[in-house]
Amino acid sequence: METRGQRYRYVGPAELKALVRVGGDGRGIRSSADFDEWVSALPLDELAEPFTFVVDGGGVLRLAPRRSEHVVCAGGGEVLSAGEMSFREESGRWVVEEVSNQSTGYCPDISSWPAVAEALDRIGIHRPSGFTHEMVFRRCRSCREINIVREDDFVCVLCGEDLPRGWNVREPG
Fold first, then answer.
1. What separation in angstroms does the CA of 132 have from each of 19, 29, 34, 101, 147?
2. 28-61 confidence digits (pLDDT tens)
3. Interior angle at CA 39, CA 56 and CA 134, nearest 5
4. By the 8 A CB rule, do 75 and 44 touch?
5. Whether pLDDT at 10 is above 90
């Protein structure tokens, strides 16, 4: 399995990382059979909400209920992407309805999309051509806090300093 792309390490609160159990809580989806088995066991009301997802370091899509922490879903390891994903059944097959890189624990760049696309293609789930909702994360070089850039305004909401244009969350906090 190809695992190209940047790896993202957890940058969120230590108390959330302390919840990690060996192996992680995310269900690894390696094939369409894995997905069918997983989705058929879900209550219908759970399908109405997006799921927490990560693409782990091996390129495997891991899914967990929405209110799960990404770091717990990933078992504490590095990921190739992370966010939220929702599904719908269309003409007898499952498709990704929406997908974002919304993970404040890993803060993946929008350039992590190819890892998501490859994982979904591998299991045969139809997908959009990119994230349907993109989050732009940057670390302020002055106050060291992580920001979500909104409306292309690359200014730290805490100290007012300019934020870098390129992804830099891995820089120490």
1. 29, 21, 24, 9, 20
2. 999 999 999 999 898 888 888 999 999 999 999 9
3. 50
4. no
5. yes
> In 10 A of CB 54, how many CB atoms?
34
Say how many residues make up the chain.
Answer: 173
Cβ atoms of residues 110 and 82 within 8 Å: no
Q: Indicate the angle between helix axes 113-123 and 32-40, nearest 10 degrees.
A: 90
| Among 166, 173, 102, 118, residue whose Cα is nearest residue 144 | 173
Q: Is the pTM of this model over 0.90?
A: yes
Please, which pLDDT band fits residue 92 given cuts at 50, 70 and 90?
confident
- Using alpha carbons, list the distances in angstroms from residue 103 to 31, 58, 81, 84, 106: 24, 19, 9, 8, 6
Q: Return the biggest CA–CA distance within the chain.
A: 52
Return d(Cα 161, Cα 155) in angstroms, integer.
Answer: 6
Q: What tokens appear for 145 in the block? A: 């806090």
- Predicted confidence band of residue 80 (pLDDT cuts 50, 70, 90): very high
Residue with tokens 């959330």: 16
Pairing relation of β-strands 136-139 and 61-64? unpaired
